[in-house]
Amino acid sequence: MIRDTARDFLAVRSDSAAVRRVVDAAADAAQDGHDTALWREMAGELGWCGIALPEAAGGAGLGAVELALLMEQMGQRLACVPYWSAICLAAPALAGSLAPAPAAPWLARLAQGEARAALALPAWMAPGADGSLDADALTVTAAVAGDGYVLDGQVAQVFDAAGADWLLVPARLSGDAAGQPALFLLQTAALAGQPGFGLRRLAVLDRTRPLADLVFDGLRVEANACLAQGAGVAAGVGAAMWHASLMLAAEQLGGAQQCLDLTVAYAAERVQFAGRSPPSRPSSTAARR
Question: Record's Pfam families (predicted)?
């Protein structure tokens, strides 16, 4: 039922013409390649943003299978929404790094589509050999400064960072907790124009999945921006990266299926030499087998 509903909805709301409009608009560097109306419908009317989030946070409490079914259909229609980065990557990182109670208010806003989150890790980063986040590979450091922290470093090629409401920033702690990972939540509205933070949109081939570079240069943040630290962050973010890889594969499967379907349909209906192409026949070599 989930797959059928998604297929029927996206066939209408994310057809080739709709995707083309969004992609053409994203040729302007100020656009992020997202269909905001489609996102609102998916989050509000259909409840897709909460499908795999805990019921305690307003989600449906379903699992990876149901989420993969949605991702497959989104890939088939090239849906121009930040679903993969916000719901398949950032949300699991948040849920896995925090205990259920403190995570619930944040996850509830994601489940309702009220906020979009981006996980500030490079596009190419993978979990360590044990499946967890390798803190030594983090390119942002966090040092205690008074009643808050100072963030320094750069993160290249972050998915959907420019359009996010929240940046989830994994950073390597210094001082007494040196080497331990921590997860910071930064609200982008508060970062605009703030010294110590920079965001640069990148020119990309796939305008439906924008990338941006982030720079932290002595950025001061409040103590409560640090949501969690230690082994829980390493395990939670690492698991989210594996989870997101699986969902990306489901999306690619949907895209490949659409390419196959279109090719088969074209081959069956194409016209050449004033008539339809004859159905394909096995070669003589194959027939002899």
Answer: Acyl-CoA_dh_N
Instruction: Say which amino acid occupies 275.
Output: G
What are residue 144's DSSP bridge partners? 149
SS3 assignment, position 261: helix
Single out the residue of 106, 93, 175, 101 nearest to residue 142, CA to CA: 175
Tell me how crowded residue 126 is: count the other CB atoms within 10 A of its CB. 14
Structural domains of the chain, ranges and CATH numbers in brackets: 2-250 (2.40.110.10)
Non-local CB neighbours of 263 within 8 Å, separated by 6+ positions = none
Which whole number is the average pLDDT over 107-112? 96
- Summarised one tens digit per residue, pLDDT across range 159-169 is 999 999 999 99
> What phi and psi, each to the nearest 5 degrees, are found at residue 33?
75, 25
How far is Cα 1 from Cα 244, in angstroms, rounded to an integer? 23
DSSP 279: P
pLDDT digits (tens, 9 = 90+) for 220-271: 999 999 999 999 999 999 999 999 999 999 999 999 999 999 999 999 887 6
Contact 97, 234 (CB under 8 A): no
The structure tokens listed for 248 are 């990306």
pLDDT tens string 202-221 = 988 888 899 999 999 999 99
Q: What is the C-alpha to C-alpha distance for residues 210 and 280, in angstroms, rounded to an integer? A: 41
CB-based contacts of 28, cutoff 8 Å, min separation 6: none
SS3 of 152-166: the string is EEEEEEEECCCCCCE
What would the two tokens of residue 179 be? 């080497």
